[in-house]
Amino acid sequence: MAGDTTSIGFEYVFPAIRGLQAGREYFVSMCPLRLIPRIFLFDEGEIAPEVRAQRVLNKGRLPALTRYILDNPDDYVFSALTASVDGDVTFESIGGEGVATRAGQIRVPMAARFLINDGQHRRAAIELALKDNPDLGDETIAVVFFHDAGLARSQQMFADLNRHAVRPSRSIGVLYDQRDDLAALTRLLALKSPVFKHHVEMASSTLSARSSKLFTLSALHSANQSLLHGLKLEKKAAQDVAQAFWERIDMLLAEWQMVRKRAMTAPEVRREYIHSHGIALHALGRVGNTLLRDSVDPRAWGPRLEGLSAVDWSRSNPAWEGRAIIGGRVSKSHTQVTLTVNYLRRALGLPLSPEEQRAEDAYQRGEA
């Protein structure tokens, strides 16, 4: 088994495939999860950045990664770890010719150091997950071994491994997430609701000036998250509430309807109005959440939205400057979302929370 130790020679033995990259040998193997915390080191002490080979471990990421493993024991997926071996690495081929000469096992002295170049957060999450579920220890993760050529090489490997890494857009994350009920609800709205069908950008989290879409999937997801926050609804009930809410909003926003009727184009609406931008959707979701929480009768919240029909959503409305717009550009910072929510609450006659009131006071003083 990968990672078994021999009693003679005090070595780790890993089944491996040998490869060649940039003139250097490397080895691809599998390692039981129970060995990961024991043999793979991460230089996470108080060491100056210039003499480290990795970034500082962000412990704030670990609970979510650990929970991901524990909550999905039958279908979690982790990509390979990359490690440098500071010690002798001996490769033994299984013999034969051709491909067979590249398959075999590597022997590494137990005194060698295994330093993680890429995957330090996965390593730490595996360690935490094993404490809750030791049965995971016999499962394996792919490991790519490089021979350690010193600090400079390890630092360069880290830079190279991360140089071209690009996080997928939030929209792609929502589109492909099959576990999250809110993501499924948002996809359903985007694909089936008459308000959003054909008008949601499903892959990108930004819209080009000429895009024919009005909304992004990530913006709609954030809006639904705000709308349904804290509401204990079954999946079907949540879908019904979200669809009813956005259909009601659509009735109050003539420009959304005009795009569907081809009386206006999506670029025109985005250029002249803010109500299809992420900040407005998010703010509308927060206001809707308040109405849903306050309504004993599930049908009572709809009429309370009527005040939105009097809101001037055009960018030329000076009330948006400093709230949704900073220096002529729509901004979705936390403060701007709060100030936009405040404006809509005022239009609907709703009180502000203490946090919202503090943000409003600062804005009125010119401090926002």
From TrEMBL:
InterPro entries: DGQHR-contain_dom, DNA_S_mod_DndB. It comes from the Bacteria. Coiled coil: none annotated. Pfam families: DndB. This is DNA sulfur modification protein DndB. It comes from Streptomyces chisholmiae. The lineage of its organism: Bacteria, Bacillati, Actinomycetota, Actinomycetes, Kitasatosporales. The gene is dndB.
